[in-house]
Amino acid sequence: MDAKNRISRSQEINAKVARLFQKRSQIAQQGFSQRAHDAATHLGADRSTASPGSAWAAALDPWAGYRHAVDVMQRTVLFWDTLRQRGNSFVDQTSRGLQPVLHFDYETVLDARLFARPVNYALLRILPPEGVPIDVRKRPYVIIDPRAGHGPGIGGFKDDSQAGVALKAGHPVYFVIFFRDPEPGQTMLDVCAAEQQFVRKVCELHPDSAKPAIVGNCQGGWAAMMVASSDPDHTGPLVINGAPMSYWSGAWSEGEGDNPMRYSGGMLGGTWLASLTADLGNGKFDGAHLVQNFENLNPANSLWDKYYHLFDNVDTEPPRFLDFERWWGGYYLMNREEIQWITQNLFIGNKLWSGEVRGVGGGAFDLRDIKSPIILFASLGDNITPPQQAFNWVADIYGSTEEIKARGQVIVGLMHKSIGHLGIFVSGQVARKEHTQITSVLETIETFPPGLYGMEITEREGANGTTEYDVELRELRLEEVSARFNRFERMDEQPFEAVKRVSELNQRAYEFFVQPFAQTMSNETTATLLRQFHPLRAQRWAFSDMNPWLAWLGPAAEAVSATRKTDAQADMPLRQFERYGADMVSASLDFYRAMRDAATESAFFSLYGNMFSAYEGGERNDALEKSAQAEANPRDLPFVKDALSSMTEGGYSEAVARVACLLARRGEALPLARLVLRQQLAEDYAEYLPQLPPDQWRRIRGEQEIIVSYEPDQALATLPVLLGDHEDRRKLLRLIAKLLADSRVQGAEPTPAQLSMLEGIQSILPVKAGRGPQASASAR
To answer: Who has the most CB within 10 Å: 257, 445, 581, 621?
Structure first.
């Protein structure tokens, strides 16, 4: 690109960034104005009678003012006492080395600290609550929680959780936990090897069960993908919840859904800061820094909303607040090697999906090697792992719908409309709805035809008034999903190539000029002091019984609790003024966040967008080119050509798969009940079906579906070639006859198109009255 074009391109980028910032600013101002209007409207109406002006009249009532003042003082004492209890809990947990926050009892199955390559991980068996029966023949679940600063256990935090849902369904449940302090020298590849041993152990414990389902939350999601791709023969279906896989992806459009966390690596200059932090920690990275980054994403909640909610509901909220803070306030450590591997290969490098990351044995992690079905659960309300990061890797490694089918892969996407990142795997409501239905889908997912599916869950009222859910799966095309998620064709990911280059340069400069001095100045004493005085820790231990100035707070809170009357406190008119003020503080902090994020986004694209344009020529990356070619002419794809060229190759297995594709309903949603019926029919008529491993059967089914999709007439015409053995023809026709006579199939009401195709299949497969020489040879 010559100088003239570079200048023109730079002007174009800067103009677009300016429009984007202007639009973001308008949205921020509109949001603040709307919240201010809503707060004022709420203030102008009485909570019980909805008559205007009652709050203002109450402001002039001395008795009401006195009652409210007493209420505020009482709530203040109880509020600060709750924070004191939080501090005491923090000090107690820290002194005991931190424990998993699991709601259920458990026993240790394997402790990886005793492995040949020790790591600070362990495999637990979750013990079911009393009265919850477990069927050891059912598929076991293995849950992997994120190691992103917090401790393990959030996937089994309460009854309505991922672990609780699986236990209620009768499945054995195992949990992968980690301890606070890493083992000396452990790496992420060592962790992956240990998790492989965990999965194999679960397989040994349940030899009569299907392969274990692996549930990965957030960073536990990419850990689960690494395990499944490096050891596909021992892993069953994968459930990946809010897991960042394509780290550079995110919404970037004029006014919709910015994702500020993906810009942080570039604005901080890359991976060098994580290395410096680990060196100052004497070789250990403090997870409190990661938690602080999460808190900075939403200052309104971190600084105000969660505390005012506690203050406003101090008579009922403390148990829930303290229970959650027990997990949120537990900060775990990583080795320098671990955090550097994560930042350089994943956060900044974005190498996992590309096959550039290599395992302990030297082989690359190729996500296409995963044989088991995958469920991807994300949310439009998640600004930590936006849907683009959860789904774009599928387009990156497969490139086309046909490749997914040809490889026999099943990928199911489930999208929540509003829940935040933590809610994906913490919310009890999400557990009761989404995770319960995911568990029901896992019963049949290995029998799905290969392809990409969208999962929809609808609510309805049951016969006894309870909420019931219906699940439908609709087959999608990868090209259409990718275009819908990425309105700008992923052009916004190109500047991250420049971030990667800058990060590598800064990392080398840090290692050469700064790291020797940082490591020389650091020792265990200085590292411990830095960790203890981290703001998130200090605010907890400083407000605990360790502080002698707070000796009065506990007795004062007990006295207030003994005399407090809560029946009429919440309806005090002056509480409306208080909530109005709280709403305005929250709205102001949200406005600050929106403007901060808009400025960060604009600065990022102004800097790295121009840098990429100048030095990389603004060319599209290989994945985009591959996707564009696939969309332009799918018949030219290698997998389509290979499938069509093998139309006359195969035998009974290929014939059964082709008949299934010829009889499939086209363009209809698939209710879960119909998929369950398919599985039941497959079990009842197993003697007529090919006895193949599920992954091999899905691959054959995918190839035959490509043939039927592109050449349906020839697919039917060449069916007799696959059934040269007349005994195989008889077997297939007997299967068709039995299915037609089955009341369950009749109840599904075959369509006219299916009945017509059945007649065509039967007419094209004539069977000799006697057994021919081929059949006799086959029988022998």
So the answer is: 445
